[in-house]
Amino acid sequence: MTADVAxxxxxxxPLWNDPAHPVAARVDAxxxxxxxxxxxxxxxxxxxxASANGGEVAPHQHDMEEAVDLDALLPDGLxxxxxxxxxxxxxxxxxxxxxLRTQSRITSANRFGxxxxxxxxxxxxxxxxGATAYPVPLSWGxxxxxxxxxxxxxxxxxxxxxxxxxxGLAPVLDVxxxxxxxxxxxxxxxxxxxxxxxxxxxxxxxxxxxxxxxLKHFVGYSASRAGRNLAPAxxxxxxxxxxxxxxxxxxxxxxxxxxxMHSYTDTDGVPAAADESLLTGLLRDTWGFDGxxxxxxxxxxxxxxxxxxxxxxxxxxxxxxxxxxxxELPTVKTFGAPLAEAVTAGRVxxxxxxxxxxxxxxxxxxxxxxxxxxxxxxxxxxGVDLDDPDALRGRIDLDRPENRELAREIAEKAVxxxxxxxxxxxxxxxxxxxxxxxxxxxTAVLGCYSFPQHVGVQHPDVPVGIDLxxxxxxxxxxxxxAEITAVRGTGVDDGDLSGIGEAVDAARDADIVIAxxxxxxxxxxxxxxGEGCDAESLALPGAQQHLLDALLDSGRPxxxxxxxxxxxxxxxxxxxxxxxxxxxxxxxxGTHAIAGVLSGRTGPSGRLPVSVPRGPGSQPTTYxxxxxxxxxxxxxxxxxxxxxxxxxxTYTSFAWSDLAVDAREAGTDGEFGLALTVRNTGxxxxxxVVQLYLHDPVASVVQPVQRLVGYTRVELEPGESRRVRVTVxxxxxxxxxxDGRRVVEPGDLELRLAASSTDxxxxxxxxxxxxxxxxxxxxxxxxxxxxxxxxxx
Length: 793
Description:
Helices cover 26% and strands 19% of the residues. It contains 22 helices and 28 strands. The chain starts with 22 loop residues before the first helix and ends with a strand.
């Protein structure tokens, strides 16, 4: 079925290929010239793997999909290529050549010459063989530094664009609700403001490089009951509106994200993939989002197989299209023949096809894929002889020194010092017992969406592709005069107790014990952290707590180091360790960063993006609890964390003083001005993170006791002072009222300037006056910080 549209052309260039015309006019003309099959072909992807020899890609066979016949599909065109670099280990230059040749085949096969849009994962770096593996998002959150995350994302985006990729499936904006969830490592933290600001910075960086950023997972995936992956999410409307949606609002409005991926979850019986009120009513009609909505992998088919709201593949396709899903990923299933037959039979209106197609082709036009001078040759291969693939091998470096330097900066800023009795920094130890399953494990710094852990583990004969020094390696370089004895003690999760005696003997012979514990990232039960690797409790996996307790009994000081994807309860170690150093899968430079903190070469400046529990079973809980979520006399379970959100120590000390408030009252449409002085009272440089929390004592609906509304990093030399000013708009006090509208209510507020959620330093009591005021997604999101030298005392 083809719409009857007059198409302006020139003898040389059809209107849809002419960049002199508006995108909308070009797209309308192209849609009017397409058959139904050609339209639908633009709405799905095919999962492929690049050729290791530079030839055309081959369809990837997955156990949830049927074999794909490219020869049969390509004459109608193709919307997307799924993960050509991220499916198998391929030299980047040969992968780029393979993608180039495939794009040439795609454009030659369809009568409009439309290339496919290629997407890849980029959660902790470009998920390709040989690409830099950056720290995971939980470490981004630990930096409390949007700028460094923005620079990292721009570097990732440049690498992706250089080899012909157009879209990145990141960032994850799910807010942690239960740390037992396996995908906690992929999140930025448990606070929506931290997730929103760090995630928006990532989007800005990726989009600045020309990559389409994809926000995921929209919305509620992380709110699953008991922290189980792809499980029911019992969130209420207010939790969704005030905790889970704000990061997406911010990333769309301030970040300019051009794509959103729906969640697997359902809300009160309505799956996100079929939720028209969410994907169209809220996302497009209210927020004004004009990009594409892509399916989470197999998510449309799940409407039939998992959610049970569709009787067949055509029902699933129609429900998703009506809701507002534009593109089926990772491969064609419901949007192929079943959808075409349903349209022909009148079960699905062709207008829904055209609506999705308009968005898809509009995005391709804006990426230049419809321009007459578009070339399949990516920047990294421009001007290169492509006739000799073997000569290309090794030509493209995706792990350049500047990448690794940026990875190092993030890793160092993300290391969190939880406790320290003065043992750290270590002063030239003579004998070090380095104990634990992650002490000499190179991949212990990598998350589950890093290429080596996500794909490389399936190809054990292929080199890892990047340099991954173990902590044993970096400590040997950091302390060249020390005798280091490395003992595994036990595995990450094997429960083996047989090596604990040897570990204790090594500890007793040492001056200091460094216990290196934590996780192994993996997928679907192959790890202790990662997608499908949920935890029954927050006890350390396997026999690691037994090992740690035995080391604490050795009589030697124990520095506990965590290389993990989630926070764990540490039992006795909270009080008895000489120090505890927390790191969340810190990437290629992670062990270098940890060694630097242990030696004092660098000062720790990370802050917890998630609370560390006191006990393994006091879940689910985050610091965003209401009053009923706090410790009480009517329950024997104490949810008080061992270390609260935002906590982190340094190697210096800071004094906070001279709080000033411009005015104690402001209208519900006004703002407050606060100022304080932060002084480094120690003998070495350091970074303080000033955090601003809002406490609303009386509201029309239950509120969390406090919530983060702003933060800033303050870097000071010994004796240096800085005057920190913050403007707090009334909008940040808004919440969803009883009638579902977001409102700012009059009344008293506490503005707590704090070093963490459990360490308020200065508090200003202020009052909002005037009428209740309604706000929306255009509200002011930020309490704005500025810094200046403090006046002389």
